[in-house]
Amino acid sequence: MADTVKVCTGNFGKRAQSIHTYRKLGGYSTVSSKLFDLSQFEVIDAVMRSGLRGRGGAGFPTGMKWSFVPRNTGKPVYIVVNADEGEPGTFKDHFLMKEDPHRLIEGLIIAAWALGARSAYIYVRGEFLPCIETLNKAISEAYGEKLLGENIGGTRFSFDIFVHRGAGAYICGEETALINSLEGSKGQPRLKPPFPAVSGAWASPTCVNNVETIMALPWIFENSPEAYAALGTPKAGGTKVFCVSGDVKKPGVYEARLGIPMMEMLESSEFAGGIDGDLKGVIPGGSSTPVLLPEEAAKATLDYEGLAALKTMFGSGAITPFNTTRDVVQILNTLGNFYSHESCGQCTPCREGVGYAKRVLNAIVNGNGRDGDLELLLSLADQYNGTTICPLAPALGMPVTAFITKYRRDFEEYIAKNPQRSSPRLNSNIRPGAFW
Ligand SMILES: Cc1cc2nc3c(=O)[nH]c(=O)nc-3n(C[C@H](O)[C@H](O)[C@H](O)COP(=O)(O)O)c2cc1C
Ligand code: SF4
Asked: Are strands 239-244 and 252-257 parallel, antiparallel or unpaired?
């Protein structure tokens, strides 16, 4: 049955960008004794009980992440909101911030109280200019009403929020690359440990959370952690904001309980309204998540465990179904171009190996595929695992493996068209790319 609980998107279309409207809709009610009577540990405990898990892709339990942030180190604690949103198919955070910026501010006040943070940075993809303007306007309204700044609500709690524009690199969504970029360095991931919770921005304890994760907090404290937990599955509480694009009748941003069947999200008139054409496959959680065949999609539920059971991932909740008119070889080639372009270049298996996969894929779509290319691609994909600083290289390896395994004939048909296919693949057979 279709679902109507709206934790993060309830104010969409209601002009909640204005603080007066946001307040009329019940906003900022948690910035009161409801919050300030709780200790930091009680707030963290409530977030743990809610079952909230990070919505940026990895699904790490938020309360547990917060509990790792050390107290009394003598250094400031920072909160960083990850609003970089560069994964192909993912566009929910952009809408969340544009439609309901005060909910993000309210969520940040709750997080700051819990973590003892004096300042937060919202790291936003630089291209989201109208969204950045909306955020800045909302932040200045919140300062105007003394919800930010010194001595909030007459307490000794003071808190500032800064919006930082990124320069539009996908890798800057990875939390340690984001921190480097925020500090003014090259946006390249750092080796972990230390994890940001212990040593992040300016070598201080730093909590990096996704926009949607923070925006769930006002509802949790307005209703109750238990009510939030009850919306989801036994292993993850709440709702999820899904981005549905591709061959559906109504692409868009839709919020639903965790655990909803995938086909309900794709077919219900409340959500994406049905597949446009005959379904050939579904990318279930963002471009790096392994593709599902229609019979797998029919069994899938939209939650962390449901998708893991089908050997894929929940990811960022970006669902992209495609129909039988689509060319899966071209789809994978596009992903190869993207991940190769976005490699930061630090690790050889990523810089060289992802670039190599891209060039082999380019050769296949250009009619220069060779016998053995599919084995070569599968072997490359295998070699990314565990050999790189961050998961960007495996993020190409996973779709390479899934697409070739599940749609092998489509790839073989391309290769069969090359009369030279039996001559061995040498590096000189592959046209040099920009990064060769
Ligand atoms: C290449 C790459 C890109 C990422 N991009 C984003 C992003 O745009 N937004 C995001 O919230 N998390 C992104 N992540 C995940 C972050 O590293 C981090 O796990 C997340 O921001 C933590 O927030 P959460 O616990 O609230 O999910 C990315 C990770 C990788 C490896
Ligand atoms: S895996 Fe790729 S993107 Fe990640 S740190 Fe290594 S080279 Fe950079």
From this structure: antiparallel
Point out the ligand nearest to the CA of residue 54: 1
Would you state the CATH architecture of domain 232-323?
A: Roll (3.10)
What digits encode the pLDDT tens for the residues 252-281? 999 999 999 999 999 999 999 999 999 999
What H or E segment, with its residue span, contains residue 42? helix 40-50
Which among 364, 363, 357 has a CA at the least distance from the CA of 379?
357
Q: Which pLDDT band, with edges at 50, 70 and 90, does 431 fall under?
A: low
Contact 124, 161 (CB under 8 A): no
Ranges in the chain annotated CATH 3.40.50.11540: 19-229
Percentage of the chain lying above the pLDDT 70 cut: 97
In this predicted structure, what is the pLDDT of residue 433? 43
- Cα–ligand 1 centroid distance for 260 (angstroms): 23
Average model confidence (pLDDT) across the chain:
94
Residues whose CB is less than 8 angstroms from the CB of residue 352 and which lie 6 or more positions away in sequence, other chains included: none
Which two tokens mark 127? 């291209």
Q: Which tens digits make up the pLDDT trace of 73-114?
A: 999 999 999 999 999 999 999 999 999 999 999 999 999 999
Consecutive H or E run containing 123: strand 119-124
In the chain, CATH 1.20.1440.230 covers: 328-429
Ligand 1 pocket at CB < 6 A: 54-58, 60, 65, 82, 84-87, 171, 173-175, 208-210, 213, 390-392
Mean pLDDT (whole number) for 19-31: 97
User: Could you please report the per-residue DSSP string of 298-335?
Assistant: TT-BSSHHHHHTTT---TTSEEEEEETTS-HHHHHHHH
Looking at the chain, the domain(s) classified CATH 3.10.20.600 span 232-323
Q: Which CATH code is given to the segment(s) 328-429?
A: 1.20.1440.230
- Expressed in angstroms and rounded, the spacing between residue 393 Cα and the centre of ligand 2 is 7
- CA 349 to centroid of ligand 2, rounded, Å: 8
- CATH architecture of the domain formed by 19-229: 3-Layer(aba) Sandwich (3.40)
Ligand 2, atom nearest to 345 Cα: 7
Atom of ligand 1 at shortest range from CA of 178: 17
Candidate from 174, 207, 213, 304 with most ligand 1 atoms within 8 A of CB, to mutate: 174
* Bridge-based pairing state of the strands 239-244 and 206-210: unpaired
Atom of ligand 1 nearest to the CA of 173: 5
